[in-house]
Every structure is written in structure tokens, then in C-alpha cells.
């Protein structure tokens, strides 16, 4: 299996681009062929991803499956890729979710139907998302990071709902704004390192960066701005409700399940290991913002009348838990964050699928109009209840572990961090979980229960279709499996997380870096 | 004076082509005058081949006025290739607008000759003569639609601003000659380094030279002629002005600033930084309100000029390796700019053919009517906006890189903000093409020529976006330190 060691992850990332090219060369009228191509290429990428996951050495902290080739010699940027326990779950998640989205497209394509354009953008998006999780060179990371913008812009803008134009340009401008400052930060890191390098692993090594404290804070600020907008962390979240709500179902699923994780991943992969001291300084701020995000997201959800918009706002809260875990700077917190990312991806992805399918049938997303869903479509209602309960963090399902461990880790954050701030954040987060349970249950009460409106009673509206099951069963199964057996992810992440924590001040690997 | 005919081969070939096109046109009946275009392409192609055959050689001739090196050859090649593309997008336009082809191509070839010369000019007189050779035929081209008032206005504005700026530049150059007694850039540099006392006059001279070039490269506040001239000229001429003419201005500017006035860099660098920031901010802000595609591209090209000159804002009198990064950034930007800007103009020409409309609003529903046009335009505009995975991103990246290396953090922040600002109007064009619905069902008709040019440019912009090493390798080492 030698090729897997070097080419495995590259293949998984670039198969979708090959698929997109193949689709572009296929005439528009051959919709069947186009769909089949998308299915084959995303499926192949997923299979390669699973082969890599199988060959992954659990318990090893360092990077595996590395490949390092010269790419743009003039600026010293390399094609350096590799994965560790932090990236592996996210790589597999993005490959899986895109594959399921393509299956879902077999059941339904959004208006105006254009399989060729829609699927080629989806595949391009997949490459950008997956690539972000394997890049170990800052320039390469940036390229993958930005690669998702154009496809997502068009996906929202062309195939979205009423306010799609506004939502798409807002998403585009907002994200570009953040990433421009991130790019400035990357370049500053390059010119401050000795020898000059864009390589993340080299930049993490002690002595490569010798930054004055002020500059380190400035650079961290630039990086954090880019990542925080993507997460999105309160108060940088305002693009999210619009983008998620207006996007077509597949776009919402990909945004929620994968795109948001690029931001949190950026903190774990780049900002914290390269600038550990600045990260320690900023951690309380991030902690406070996360706590606000949790409560703010929940309160907003309570006020929503639109099912999809409510799910969108719930992402703000859930990502708040993830960021809170990261802000604690502890192994538990980091583990919880990664687990939370995957869990949120699976559960919220599922919720967006459901809201999309419900909208397809009822042509409305207004919670008030949907009452009595369980009378009309018992299976759909059951799945909605299941995913909602998983999302509110019921023990035994995937949503539980990420949130509860994040809260626990806030009780005892990194010894250098302020205890009162994080314990307050924990209490606030705890209130947030109660509110989360509140708005989900209230939504279920209004949507699933109650009486069916007259206008639906006579119409024949199909319950969950076989193709939908096909797309959803893997996610549903993961919700249960991850809930019952969280070690599936924790085992992979733990050693990498431990290595990451050791880079922080006070850790074993930080001795040489403390006087930076 | 020694004359090295081999080093001058491209220019000599171009002169022959120029005379040939002019003469043959005289003896042909009207319906056969289209041969001017293939003849011009052939002539410029031969010139490009001559440039390639000189690749790697270094020569100096005409008493040091004319230098052939990597830098000069690279830009000669760019000028030739860009001119060929402009010829290709001109032909159908000229036929439909009944513009005299012989004159048109002769003027373009003359202007092109000036560009080839300017890339090699390392002497104030040579630079000035070459600049005039570039500008005067361009003015005729801008006004070539004789019975069109807009075209007349375009030529007149261009002419008045051009004369004014030439006068100022000449004043600066004569001041430089006055304090150094030299016209060769290398000698001027040596004299300035030796003669510390005359810094004030040298600064004044630099000021006038910069003002003169400000007009050529459309830097604020010398950009007022640009939108009207671009709009009134035939659209392919606007492409010619915004790409070739502007690039030629930058090529001469780089030579004067780094070879001749390099020792004063600490004094002029901040001026360029400031000018760059104001130019791009102005261009982007005004572009936001445009509804006419050529005017939008005109303001966008002003903003682009701001990006291109930004690296000069961190140039240094002493740090040669920093200057290398600065020139690398500017050269890379110019190379990539040529592809995407001509591409955008080419699509504007194509899309305007059917009904002569250049209003962005008329692009509504283009994605359903002519998806290829919509996709191509999006590729070029997103590249101009600097969005991955297109070549334009790397152009911006190099500028970011240069200003950060030079410690110009505020320049970087200004560029970052401008990138976001600019995206709004670039994306708005795509928005109209992809997201606005329209009742029109007519497709844009494409001739094979236009289809080939647009496709080739779009593919190049994408490929260079994925493999930017091709361009950066070309640009690396193309400097004169």
C-alpha cells in the first residue's frame, strides 16, 4: 500500500476536481451521465479517504501520509500535505458528506435545474474543503481555503431562495474580508521566520519565529479574524443566518457540515501551534465570545419563525461550544472541540437535509404552517425529532460529548488562564444548553405535534423516499455510533491533541519558546 | 556609433511589417483590405519570433541607449502577444463599424514599435521618443471613428492630457540633465550618487517625471481622461490602451526609477505608496457605480494601476534584494494583468456585437443564453478581483508579499480592504449574468476567431492560477540590478 502513504490524501482531494472536469466536458443534456460521474468521483474519493483512515496509525502524534514537493519556487511555497489525528476526522467527514449530497441530488436538484453546473461546483467545493484539512503549507492552505468561495457564492446566488443575491454576496465579501487579513498574517509569519518559510510544521518549531510580543498579537489577530468569520464566532456571524437560510439544501448542508469547521480547524492547526503565547493571551477573549455566542444563538433560535433559519442560528451556538473548548487550551477542550465539529457536521447536516426535504413538500419553512407533521409524514417527523434531540445534546447521541466535555474543560482551563472567566463561561454555556433544549423541543412541539393545517390535509405529500434514506442513513447511523462510542474519534485525536497542548506555555515542547 | 542589427532585429522586422501593411492597403480594393489584419498578425508574429530567438542574450547598442536583456525581451514578447490578441478581437468590430482597417493596423503597429523600443530604452531621450511614438498613434486610434462624437471627444481628451503630461515629463527630464549632465540612466544614477547637494532639484525633477508617467499609467490624479477615452474609443482600442499602453508606461517607469533614480528611492517610495493607495481606492469606489461595461473596466483598470504601483511604495535606496522583490511583484502583476484585462475586454467586445450594447444590465440571463460567455467573463473578472483559483490572485499575492517584506503593513491593509471593495462590482457583473433573469433568448454569436481567443485566454488564466510558478519563474531574474 505504498501509494497510499504518499498519494492517498492527494488523490482523495483531487479526484473531485477530475470529476468536475469530466462533468464540464459532458454535454448538458446528458444529465444521467453527469450525475453518475459525480457519484463515481465523490464515491471514489470517499473510498480512498476510508483506505487512508484504515491505514492511519492511531496513537501516533505526528503527521502521517506526508508529501512535500516544490510548488512555486519563486515564493518558496511547497505542496506539503499530511494528516494527523486532528485532520483525519474532518477529512473523512467532508468526503462523506459531499458523497451523501450527491446522492441527495439524485432525488432532488434545486431550481433552475442545471445538473452540470451544480454538480461541478459541488465537486470543486469538495476539493477546497478537503484540501484545507490536509495542507501543511500556509500558501497551499490559503488556496484551498479560498477555493470554496466562488462555488459557494454561485451555489447560493443561483440556486438559493428569495433573498439569494443578497445572501451570496454578503457571504463572499465577509469571508474575503477575513481571509485578506489572514493572508497578511501568513506573509508576516513568513518574513518573520528564520529561515523564511510557509511550512506550518517548521513554523511550529521553537526558534524559527522570533516575534516581538506586539507583532505576535497583531498577527494572531489577523489570523483569528479570518478564522473567526468562518466559524463564525459572535459577533462575526451575521453572514451565516442569511447564507445558510438562502442556500439550496446541498449548499446549506455543506456549509454547516464542513465549511464552518475550516475556521475552528484553522485555530487548532495554525493559530495556536504557531503562536502559542499570543493564543494564551487571546484565549479568555475567545472564551467570552464563545459563551456569548452560545446564549445569543439559542436566544435567536427561540425567536425564529422559519425552520431553516432556526437551524442556521443553532449553528452559531454549537460552534460556540467548539470555540469554548478550544479557548480552554486543555487536551480535554481540544478533544471536545474536534468531537464537537464532527458531531455538529453530522447532526446539523442532517437537520438541513430534513428542512430541505420538508420545504420541497410543503413549499414553506414557516414553523407555524407546518403543524401536525407527524400526522402527514410520520417518518419525516420521526427523523426530525431524532436529529433535533441529538442536536440538543441528549446523552447517548453524538451531540452530547462535544458539549459536555467542552463545558467540563471550561471548569478547569489551562493553568495560565483566568479561572473566574472560564467558570463564568461554563455557567453561561450551561444556561445555553438549557435554552438549546428549549428551542428544539418547542420547535418539535409546533412542527411535529398539533393539528394538520387544512391545506395539507387533501394533498398527497410523500413521506421519506428511498433515495433520501440512502443519503441520510449514514448520518443517522453516525449520530448513534458516535454517541455510544465516542472513542471512534477521541482515540484518533487524542495523541495529536496532547502534542498540541505540549506546545503551549508550560508544556514540554514549549520550554524553548517561552521567551519568545 | 555602433549599431548591433541583431539586437535590433525585432524592431527592424516590425518596421518592415508596418510599411508593408501601409503600402499594400493603398493598392487593394476596398473589399480586400481585410488582409491588413492577417498581415499584421504575421508581422508581429515574426517580431515575436525574433524576440524569442534573442532570448537569453544580452546586448547593448546605439551608444548604450538601447539595451537587450531578460527584462526587455520579456516585455517585448508580452507586447507582441497582447497586440496579436487585440488584432484578433478588432477584426469583426472594425468590419461592423466600418472602420478603415489599413490605418487602424498601421497605427497599432507604430504604437507597438514604440513599446518594443521603450522596453530597451535606458536613456532619457530614447524613453521620451518611444513614449511619444506610443502615444501619438494611440490618439489617432481613439478618434478613428471619425463621425462619432464620443470618439472625437475621446481623442481630444487623450490628446490634451497627453500633451500636458509630455511637457511636464520633458521638464523633469531636462532638469535631470541639467544637474547631472547626462541622459543615460546609468550615468544619471552615478552622478546623483556622487552629487549629494542637488537633491532638492533632483526631487523636483523626479516629481515632474512621475507626473508625466502618472498620465500614462493612469494614476490618481492624472486618470481623468481614462473613462471617457476608453468609452469613446473603439472597444479594442480601449483594450489596447488599458493593457499595452499602460504596461509600456510601467516598463519605462521601472527603468527610470530603479536604474536612474534608484539612489533617491527613500524619497520617492512613499509617494508611490500614497499614490497607489489613493489610485486604487478612487478607482474602486467610482467603479462601484458604473453601469457601462467599458467604463467599469476603465475604472477597474485605474484601480489595477494602483495595485501595480503599490510595491514601489516600499522600494529602498540600499536594499537590492528588497527591490528585487518589488520589481518581481510589479512584473508578475503586469504579466498576469495582460491576460485577464484583454480577456475581459474581449468578452465585452463579443457580448456587445449583437446589438452594440455595453450596458451591464443587458447581460441579464447571459448564463442561460450563452453560458460560455458568462463563464469566461466571470473567469476574467474574478481574476481581476484576485480570487482563487485564478491567476489574478497570484498577482495580488506578489504585491502583498512585497509590501509586507518592505514593512509597509498599512499598504497591505489598504490593499486588503480594496480587494474586498473591488469584489463587489466584479461580482455584480457575474451576478447579473448568472442570477438575474431576463426575457431575452437570443444567443451571442461568436466567430471562430473570437471564440478561440476568449477560450485561450480563459484557460490561461485558470492554468496560471493553478500553476503560478510558470509566470513567477519568467518574472524572476527579469530585473536590472
Report how far the terminal alpha carbons of chain B are from each other: 26 Å
Q: Beta-strand level of the residues of chain A, as a percent range?
A: under 5%
What kind of assembly state do the chains in view correspond to?
heterodimer
Give the chain pair forming the largest contact, with residue counts. A-B, 34 and 37 residues
Order of helices and strands of chain B: HHEEHHHHHHHHHHHHHHHHH
**Major sheet of chain A:** 2 strands, antiparallel
What is the alpha-carbon Rg of chain B in Å?
21 Å
Residue runs with pLDDT of under 50 for 5 or more positions of chain B: none
Q: Quick one: how many beta strands of chain A?
A: 2
Radius of gyration of chain A: 22 Å
Strand order of the largest sheet of chain B: 1-2
- Secondary structure: number of strands of chain B: 2
Shape of chain A: globular
How many helical stretches of chain B? 19
The ordered H/E elements of chain A are HHEEHHHHHHHHHHHHHHHHHHH
Structural class of chain A: mainly alpha
Question: Which term fits the overall shape of chain B?
Answer: globular
Q: What is the percent of helical residues of chain B?
A: over 70%
Strand order of the largest sheet of chain A: 1-2
Give a short account of the largest sheet of chain B.
Answer: 2 strands, antiparallel
Poorly predicted residue ranges of chain A:
510-516
Explain the overall architecture:
- The complex is a heterodimer of chains A (516) and B (481).
- Chain A has 516 residues and is mainly alpha-helical.
- Helices cover 73% and strands 3% of the residues of chain A.
- Chain A has helices at 2-24, 31-55, 88-107, 115-134, 138-147, 149-159, 164-192, 200-204, 213-230, 239-246, 249-274, 276-303, 307-327, 331-362, 373-376, 378-391, 398-411, 419-447, 454-457, 466-484, 487-502; strands at residues 64-72, 77-83.
- The radius of gyration of chain A is 22 Å and the shape is globular.
- The model of chain A is unreliable at 510-516 (pLDDT under 50).
- With 481 residues, chain B is mainly alpha-helical.
- Chain B has helices at 9-27, 36-54, 70-97, 101-120, 124-142, 149-180, 185-194, 199-216, 225-232, 235-260, 265-287, 293-309, 320-353, 366-369, 371-385, 391-405, 409-434, 448-466, 469-475, and strands at residues 59-61, 66-68.
- Chain B has a two-stranded antiparallel ribbon with strand order 1-2.
- In chain B, a hairpin with a 4-residue loop joins strand 1 (59-61) and strand 2 (66-68).
- Chain B is globular, with a radius of gyration of 21 Å.
- The mean pLDDT of chain B is 90.
- Chain A binds chain B through residues 71-75, 112, 117, 139, 142-143, 146-147, 149-150, 153-154, 157-158, 164-165, 168-169, 172-173, 176-177, 180-181, 183-184, 187-188, 190-191, and chain B through 328, 367-368, 371, 382, 387-389, 393, 397-398, 400-401, 404-405, 409, 412-413, 415-417, 419-420, 423-424, 427-428, 430-431, 434-435, 468-469, 472-473, 475-476.
Amino acid at each position: 500500500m505504498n501509494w497510499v502513504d504518499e498519494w492517498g490524501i492527494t488523490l482523495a482531494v483531487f479526484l473531485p476536481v477530475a470529476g468536475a472536469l469530466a462533468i464540464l466536458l459532458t454535454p448538458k443534456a446528458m444529465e444521467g451521465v453527469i450525475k453518475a460521474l459525480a457519484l463515481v468521483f465523490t464515491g471514489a474519493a470517499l473510498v480512498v479517504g476510508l483506505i487512508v483512515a484504515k491505514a492511519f496509525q492511531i496513537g501516533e502524534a505526528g503527521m502521517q501520509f506526508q508529501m512535500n514537493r516544490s510548488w512555486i519556487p519563486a515564493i518558496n511555497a511547497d505542496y506539503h500535505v499530511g494528516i494527523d489525528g486532528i485532520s483525519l476526522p474532518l477529512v473523512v467527514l467532508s468526503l462523506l458528506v459531499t458523497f451523501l449530497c450527491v446522492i441527495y441530488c439524485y432525488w432532488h436538484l434545486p431550481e433552475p435545474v442545471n445538473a452540470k453546473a451544480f454538480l461541478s461546483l459541488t465537486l470543486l467545493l469538495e476539493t477546497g474543503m478537503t484540501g484545507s484539512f490536509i495542507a501543511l503549507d500556509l500558501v497551499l492552505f490559503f488556496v484551498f481555503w479560498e477555493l470554496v468561495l466562488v462555488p459557494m457564492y454561485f451555489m447560493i446566488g443561483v440556486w438559493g431562495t428569495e433573498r439569494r443575491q443578497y445572501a451570496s454576496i454578503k457571504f463572499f465579501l465577509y469571508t474575503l474580508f477575513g481571509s485578506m487579513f489572514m493572508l497578511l498574517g501568513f506573509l508576516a509569519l513568513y518574513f518573520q521566520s528564520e529561515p523564511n518559510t510557509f511550512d506550518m510544521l517548521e513554523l511550529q518549531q521553537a526558534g524559527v519565529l522570533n516575534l516581538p510580543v506586539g507583532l505576535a498579537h497583531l498577527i494572531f489577530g489577523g489570523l483569528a479574524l479570518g478564522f473567526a468569520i468562518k466559524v463564525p464566532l459572535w459577533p462575526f456571524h451575521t453572514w451565516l443566518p442569511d447564507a445558510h437560510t438562502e442556500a439550496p439544501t446541498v449548499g446549506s448542508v455543506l456549509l454547516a457540515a464542513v465549511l464552518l469547521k475550516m475556521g475552528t480547524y484553522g485555530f487548532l492547526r495554525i493559530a495556536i501551534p504557531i503562536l502559542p503565547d499570543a493564543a494564551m493571551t487571546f484565549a479568555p477573549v475567545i472564551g467570552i465570545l464563545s459563551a456569548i455566542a452560545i446564549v445569543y444563538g439559542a436566544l435567536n433560535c427561540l425567536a425564529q419563525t422559519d425552520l431553516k433559519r432556526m437551524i442556521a442560528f443553532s449553528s452559531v451556538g454549537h460552534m460556540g461550544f467548539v470555540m469554548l473548548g478550544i479557548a480552554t487550551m486543555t487536551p480535554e477542550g481540544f478533544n471536545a472541540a474536534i468531537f464537537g465539529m464532527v458531531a455538529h457536521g453530522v447532526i446539523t447536516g442532517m437537520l438541513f437535509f430534513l428542512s430541505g426535504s420538508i420545504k420541497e413538500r410543503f413549499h414553506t419553512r414557516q414553523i407555524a404552517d407546518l403543524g401536525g407533521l407527524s400526522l402527514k409524514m410520520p417518518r419525516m417527523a420521526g427523523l426530525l425529532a431524532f436529529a433535533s434531540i441529538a442536536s440538543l445534546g441528549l446523552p447517548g447521541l453524538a451531540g452530547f460529548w462535544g458539549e459536555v466535555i467542552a463545558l467540563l474543560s471550561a471548569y478547569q482551563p489551562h493553568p495560565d488562564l483566568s479561572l473566574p472567566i472560564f467558570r463564568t463561561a461554563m455557567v453561561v454555556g450551561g444556561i445555553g444548553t438549557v435554552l438549546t433544549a428549549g428551542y428544539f423541543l418547542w420547535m418539535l412541539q409546533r412542527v411535529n405535534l398539533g393539528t394538520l393545517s387544512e391545506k395539507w390535509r387533501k394533498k398527497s405529500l410523500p413521506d421519506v423516499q428511498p433515495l433520501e434514506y440512502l443519503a441520510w442513513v449514514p448520518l443517522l447511523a453516525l449520530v448513534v455510533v458516535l454517541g455510544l462510542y465516542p472513542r471512534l474519534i477521541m482515540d484518533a485525536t487524542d495523541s495529536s491533541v496532547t502534542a498540541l497542548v505540549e506546545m503551549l506555555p508550560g508544556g514540554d515542547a514549549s520550554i524553548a519558546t517561552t521567551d519568545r | 556609433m555602433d549599431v548591433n542589427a541583431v539586437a535590433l532585429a525585432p524592431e527592424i522586422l516590425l518596421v518592415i511589417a508596418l510599411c508593408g501593411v501601409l503600402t499594400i492597403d493603398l493598392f487593394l480594393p476596398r473589399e480586400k483590405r481585410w488582409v491588413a489584419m492577417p498581415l499584421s498578425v504575421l508581422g508581429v508574429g515574426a517580431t515575436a519570433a525574433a524576440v524569442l530567438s534573442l532570448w537569453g542574450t544580452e546586448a547593448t547598442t546605439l551608444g548604450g541607449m538601447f539595451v537587450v536583456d531578460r527584462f526587455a525581451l520579456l516585455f517585448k514578447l508580452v507586447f507582441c502577444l497582447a497586440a496579436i490578441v487585440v488584432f484578433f478581437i478588432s477584426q469583426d468590430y472594425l468590419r461592423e463599424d466600418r472602420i478603415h482597417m489599413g490605418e487602424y493596423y498601421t497605427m497599432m503597429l507604430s504604437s507597438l514599435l514604440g513599446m518594443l523600443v521603450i522596453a530597451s530604452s535606458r536613456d532619457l531621450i530614447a524613453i521620451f521618443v518611444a513614449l511619444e511614438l506610443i502615444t501619438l498613434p494611440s490618439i489617432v486610434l481613439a478618434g478613428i471613428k471619425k463621425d462619432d462624437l464620443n470618439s472625437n471627444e475621446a481623442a481630444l481628451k487623450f490628446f490634451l492630457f497627453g500633451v500636458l503630461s509630455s511637457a511636464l515629463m520633458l521638464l523633469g527630464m531636462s532638469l535631470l540633465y541639467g544637474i547631472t549632465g547626462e541622459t543615460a540612466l546609468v550615468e544619471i544614477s552615478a552622478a546623483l550618487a556622487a552629487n549629494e547637494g542637488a537633491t532638492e532639484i533632483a526631487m523636483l525633477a523626479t516629481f515632474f517625471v512621475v507626473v508625466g508617467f502618472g498620465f500614462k499609467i493612469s494614476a490618481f490624479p492624472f486618470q481623468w481622461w481614462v473613462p471617457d477615452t476608453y468609452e469613446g474609443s473603439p472597444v479594442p482600442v480601449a483594450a489596447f490602451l488599458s493593457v499595452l499602453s499602460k504596461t509600456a508606461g510601467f516598463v519605462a517607469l521601472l527603468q527610470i526609477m530603479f536604474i536612474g533614480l534608484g539612489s533617491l528611492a527613500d524619497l520617492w517610495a512613499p509617494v508611490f505608496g500614497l499614490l497607489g493607495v489613493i489610485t486604487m481606492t478612487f478607482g474602486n469606489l467610482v467603479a462601484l457605480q458604473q453601469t457601462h461595461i467599458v467604463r467599469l473596466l476603465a475604472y477597474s483598470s485605474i484601480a489595477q494601476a494602483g495595485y501595480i504601483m503599490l510595491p514601489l511604495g516600499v522600494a529602498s535606496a540600499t536594499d537590492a534584494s528588497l527591490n528585487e522583490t518589488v520589481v518581481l511583484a510589479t512584473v508578475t502583476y503586469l504579466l498576469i494583468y495582460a491576460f485577464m484585462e484583454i480577456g475581459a475586454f474581449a468578452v465585452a467586445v463579443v457580448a456587445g456585437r449583437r446589438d452594440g450594447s455595453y450596458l451591464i444590465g443587458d447581460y441579464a440571463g447571459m448564463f442561460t443564453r450563452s453560458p460560455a460567455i458568462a463563464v469566461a467573463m466571470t473567469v476574467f473578472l474574478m481574476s481581476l478581483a484576485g480570487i482563487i483559483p485564478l491567476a489574478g490572485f497570484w498577482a495580488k499575492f506578489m504585491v502583498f508579499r512585497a509590501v509586507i517584506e518592505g514593512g509597509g503593513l498599512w499598504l497591505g491593509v489598504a490593499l486588503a480592504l480594496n480587494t474586498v471593495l473591488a469584489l463587489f462590482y466584479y461580482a455584480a457583473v457575474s451576478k447579473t449574468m448568472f442570477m438575474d433573469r431576463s426575457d431575452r433568448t437570443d444567443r451571442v454569436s461568436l466567430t471562430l476567431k473570437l471564440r478561440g481567443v476568449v477560450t485561450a485566454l480563459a484557460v490561461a488564466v485558470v492554468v496560471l492560477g493553478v500553476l503560478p510558478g510558470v509566470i513567477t519563474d519568467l518574472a524572476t531574474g527579469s530585473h536590472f540590478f
